């Protein structure tokens, strides 16, 4: 992986310093991870204007006797700081000493107070804004990243599949959520990609429902949303089931509508498609069925080292999908007091020559009666 | 509780605006929670220069059909925003419209980019730095807060006690950690206060160990660190046990040293004691036993709505403890390759007239052989 990381840093260097005299100081944790791999919490990366990349951070031997892991020859030099020293100040100082004309920092991550302390600590240095340059680099994934997402999705499907084989009636949302998280870890996840949501009965179909002590009952809709984190990469699946016997007519109708909306959005995923086109595809199906106002602000979003990355698939989003961009497609409808349906998948945008969108989360989307 | 919150906001108003003409805009989530109670994620609070407190945020009906919960008469007015609007901009605009001469913002929380957008969005407004005024208010806890911490500690003791009654040999660190978190929730926690750490054998005694697939074996030291979150308040306990048969001599010796260090620090907790005195009390015991370098940068820290609050009990910390400040005392020693011991408690500083430090986490600190 270190060659991959070195390549990413070279691209960032070329962007930040077209004339070869501006160093970049990266502080946002997911961006640091993207550019160097796993790093100590709070570590800050200097991408030097002429090479000499270096990582600055704190290392507590009581916490991690192995120490910073970036000690291979190809990785950046690691500097361990004492006490409360801000690693960003150490990085800026190193850039200044190496002769950088200016230092580009992440103004969307550094706080006002930290930025001011930085300017005061290293006076005479010019500061510019790196902006979201690293986030833009992260938008399109390479095959290593997609492979990690694929494993995350396999783990997620397996954890969900096992739950479906167990007895659900009478168990609480909290317990089901904890069991799913345990199964994710059992199957090799680093941990959950986001807090697992289990929503039954009148809670079903809510996007961000936090599990309660409500128990699963016969006749309920049951919505589960979970995802594994594997090598830092996060995927997402959401499914809605009906509990016991046969579903009621309103349940079948609502499920069919959400399923149709989700399929329409999935089918709209293609290189060159506008973000808002994908969103519109789902919204139109729901609107035609009288559920136009039930959908939240987004139909889906990018995933990667964070669970909510660019792009956002929403009515006002500007931009077009590219190949190798992984996104979720996750419409849902909740009917207050009754419940609802959500169906979430993680897919990778691919051209039709490459077989069209690659579905990572393959658990069936038939309406299962459990 | 709303009277309590109103009182806190009044104190902040008096601090931020001694002349009655500066509004405060609070964006840091734990500070917002302290001043209004549970609020939607990302909500921003305006503490008006002349009253008229108001909360600004986004509300997704698909996520929470009930809507913002702050609708009682005593709470601040809640304004729900559309789209991507920054709630901080709405709060600053409202302050300007209400005639505030200046607006004090949390420069240690707002990013440079967000602060710039704020100044551009509401031109003509004067901005000042609120600094850590709310964090300072949060340092000393009232009896409601301490009551919540007490319940969190009871839940934590109960979860740990149940684990100790079960068979541990052969189970993995990951499974034990997940089981502890499930038990916390079973007993009424909102969730874990921080990621539960279970460390066995050569991992034992590490402060921030993340659970692995290593299984508990006969003769191991087993270190567990966990805590419940209850009504937002977080406590912490850490204990080290020895597995099976009788402990080895080195285990008994190491345990006794860490126990003595922990006791020394606990006994140093008193109103008026310097932060670094408490730290020194533990460090001196460990140094005398030849483990002076094994201790991490802090011996303990404040707890409350966050797990790591002020004060820090460290060699360089400046300040003195006051009554009703809850802190952890958590020294530890890890011997690379062999393992180690950590013992963490949460206590509330009390004067000797009030009975001295109040121990919240009461699980025994005898060396148990399980």
Automatic annotation (TrEMBL), chains A, B:
Q: Where is the Peptidase M24 domain?
A: 148-350
Q: Write down the InterPro entries for this protein, in alphabetical order.
A: Creatin/AminoP/Spt16_N, Creatinase/aminopeptidase-like, Creatinase_N, Pept_M24, Peptidase_M24B
| Record-annotated Creatinase N-terminal domain positions | 8-140
Annotated region Disordered: where?
1-20
Q: Which PANTHER family match?
A: AMINOPEPTIDASE, CYTOPLASMIC PEPTIDASE PEPQ-RELATED
Name of the molecule in the record: M24 family metallopeptidase
Q: What is the lineage of its organism?
A: Bacteria, Bacillati, Actinomycetota, Actinomycetes, Kitasatosporales
